[in-house]
Write a structure and sequence with these properties.
The chain contains four helices and twelve strands.
């Protein structure tokens, strides 16, 4: 399925086969905001977020949206518009402002567990480059204003801004290995506390490419499913149990079936 080649900077490039499709590159990109782990030395995703353990950006597989249901609108637009560079922003300390932590250069896409009907496209990077985080206010020229301007989760970028931000990142040493080490360390910490690396998922281990085939779209009869639940409760159509999660999960944490969760109606 994959062929991986290490670059001189320490990042990884690769080629993917079916069911992955090459993504066209329009030269444009996106800013993407994620929750960072408060217990980590590097700004990885918030693995220990209570009731809503995060899997993206999934640096260990170089994917986005393969294991999670985060930002389906952005993933859908990336596939259709070819805006192939995702720059990651996060806040490490409350009130300190956002930082730029790195980027993915998206090379491939495939339908995820919930299918195209739910705009669920999984994205895979052809390369990635994570750095010592740079406060957005310290970025050069107009990039500081663009990246520091208030927006909630994502923001599209034109080709000029995309190229300039990539140059900023590429001029910094690659620290992807440090991020990967922190993902492993925090997963082990979470497991030591609860018996699970991702308690809200009922998942004992982290993510690898061996897990990917389980998350590809296989059911042509999928229906539309909301990506959020007002009461954070979800009912599984397979085992009928109601679980609580801050976001829609692709797999039921109890019966482990895929694409079976839907918002559970509130009861008196």
């Amino acid at each position: 399925m994959t062929a991986e080649v290490n670059t001189t900077e320490g990042a990884t490039t690769r080629r993917l086969d079916a069911p992955w499709h090459p993504l066209s590159n329009s030269g444009r990109g996106y800013l993407s905001v994620y929750f960072s782990e408060r217990l980590a030395r590097w700004p990885i995703r918030e693995i220990t977020r209570p009731g809503d353990n995060k899997s993206d950006p999934n640096i260990e597989t170089g994917t986005y949206g393969l294991f999670s249901t985060c930002e389906p609108g952005m993933r859908n637009r990336i596939v259709h518009d070819g805006a192939s560079t995702i720059f990651f922003l996060t806040t490490r300390k409350r009130g300190a402002g956002r930082v730029l932590s790195g980027y993915y250069d998206i090379g491939w896409f495939t339908e995820g567990t919930q299918g195209a009907i739910n705009r669920d496209y999984a994205l895979a990077a052809s390369s990635m480059h994570f750095i010592v985080p740079i406060p957005t206010a310290h970025l050069p020229g107009p990039l500081a204003e663009i990246c520091s301007a208030p927006f909630r989760t994502m923001r599209p970028l034109d080709s000029t801004t995309t190229s300039a931000l990539r140059e900023v990142c590429d001029n910094q040493p690659d620290r992807t290995g440090n991020y990967l080490d922190e993902v492993t360390r925090i997963e082990r910490f979470a497991h030591s506390r609860s018996g699970y690396a991702y308690p809200s998922w009922g998942r004992e281990e982290g993510f690898t490419w061996n897990n990917a085939p389980e998350y590809y779209q296989t059911d042509a009869e999928l229906s539309k499913v909301p990506n959020s639940s007002k009461n954070k409760k979800w009912r599984c159509s397979e085992c009928s149990h109601v679980i609580k999660s801050g976001a829609l999960l692709k797999r039921c944490p109890l019966c482990k079936e895929m694409a079976t969760l839907a918002p559970a109606e509130a009861t008196a």
